[in-house]
Amino acid sequence: LLARQAATETLKAVPADSELARRVLIERGRANNHLGAPQLAIADANQVLRASPQNAAALSVRGVALIGLKQPVDARQAFQTLRDLQPESDALQEAMGWLGISQVLTGDPNAAVRTLGENAQNTVGEGQTFALAWLYVASERQRAGQGTVALSPHLGGQDRTSWPGVLPHFLQGAASQDELLRMAKAEPEQARLRLAEAHFFIGQKLLLQ
């Protein structure tokens, strides 16, 4: 919230058509996505894209916002445009997990498995953990039991005693639902978001059985 407020104040003090203004809009868009305000995020991204149609970071912000708005087809197109226009950009590497999610949501698990598998290999930390979680979903949609196979080589690098590292262990069957929820609630200030994420993947696991 503070990042969004700071960006808004900065925008009042810089020329609207400047490169600095575009960078601040992108940061505000990211903050809006993180705060669950995709309508505001997409407005920030679109403002940048009107002046700079190939801006990789703005395309990424727009894609994430479209997923938040439950428009996965448009989100996938945004990420695909980013990959076509800026194949070597840092923004694309950061967005690969989201591209994989959009592929799952548009019913293309084969493409999602390729994208998320590559993303899991090339990222670390929470980005890798959530790539693995979605890789499980995509793999199970390919064939029952395939999600467990896909996760097995990566579990050694995931900390079962903390969030979100426990998530792949739960999906793979090594950690219980109670364990997952306990880790999600461990930090009260993050509990609401993490519990929502935990229940989402609990639901996905049930649907895929």
Structure in words:
It is globular and about 55 Å long. Helix 3 (38-51) packs antiparallel against helix 4, helix 4 (56-68) packs parallel to helix 6 and helix 8 packs parallel to helix 10. The termini are far apart. The protein is built from twelve helices and no strands. 74% of the residues lie in helices and 0% in strands. The protein has helices at residues 2-11, 19-34, 38-51, 56-68, 72-85, 90-105, 109-122, 125-142, 146-151, 166-172, 177-184, 191-208. It is mainly alpha-helical and 209 residues long.
Q: Which structural traits does this protein have?
A:
209 residues, globular
What's the helix-strand series? Answer: HHHHHHHHHHHH
Helix content: over 70%
Low-confidence stretches: none
The number of E-state strands comes to 0
The CA-CA distance between the termini, in Å, is 39 Å
Mind summarizing the main beta sheet? Answer: none
Mean pLDDT: 92
CA radius of gyration:
18 Å
The protein's oligomeric status is single chain
The general outline is globular
> Which class do the helix and strand fractions yield?
mainly alpha
Q: Estimate what percentage of residues fall within beta strands.
A: under 5%
Provide a count of the helices. Answer: 12
